[in-house]
Write a structure and sequence with these properties.
With 180 residues, this protein is an alpha+beta fold. Helices cover 53% and strands 16% of the residues. Strand 2 and strand 3 form a beta hairpin. The two termini are 27 Å apart.
Length: 180
């Protein structure tokens, strides 16, 4: 299973109408279809305006990895977007699909830390424990509170507090901490 998400949209693409987005989504869908072997069995569906799912049956991990690399490059060259791709492990039990989808959505959150236009593998989540998820550094809480208070005292104080807050976020290695 592959989760494909369009990365941050530029000011230009934010003005796209729903019809424009539909057209670009068709282009991306055609790129995917062209990359897949005509003999492969696959299913593709939209998750949202900016995200799609692709389930491919009977393919090797190496071929799947190559497909993701080629797709990422093709989208960047032929559209005004970049995409990030969350690549799941092979599975044989379709009842696991919902859990794997949730895992890949979480994996795709790593683009907040590492940037877009990348391929993220679900193994990345295995290195994050639940305890790490809720261990937000106290300095981040401190600067968040000070930022809220500084907003009452003027723009300059708020900007200074925000700089400290974002400097604290630079050291965070988990998207779950940022989400928290």
């Amino acid at each position: 299973l592959i989760h494909i998400g369009i990365d941050h949209t530029s000011a230009k693409t934010q003005s796209f109408s729903p019809e424009d987005w539909g057209g670009w989504n068709d282009v991306i869908k055609k790129l995917i279809t062209d990359l897949l072997d005509d003999h492969s069995t696959h299913w593709m569906w939209k998750d949202s305006l900016h995200a799609s799912w692709l389930l491919i049956k009977d393919t090797t991990p190496t071929a799947l990895e190559q497909l993701c690399i080629t797709l990422k490059t093709s989208v960047q060259r032929q559209t005004p977007f970049t995409v990030s791709i969350a690549l799941g492990n092979e599975f044989n039990d379709l009842t696991l699909l919902v859990n794997i989808k949730d895992e890949l959505r979480s994996t795709l959150q790593y683009r907040m830390i590492q940037g877009g236009n990348k391929i993220f593998r679900s193994e990345m989540l295995k290195h994050v424990s639940y305890n790490k998820v809720i261990e937000v550094p106290p300095s981040i809480y401190k600067w968040a509170e000070e930022t809220v208070q500084a907003m009452e005292h003027g723009e300059e104080a708020a900007i200074r507090s925000l700089r400290h807050f974002f400097n604290g976020l630079k050291n965070v290695t988990s998207p779950f901490v940022i989400h928290e």
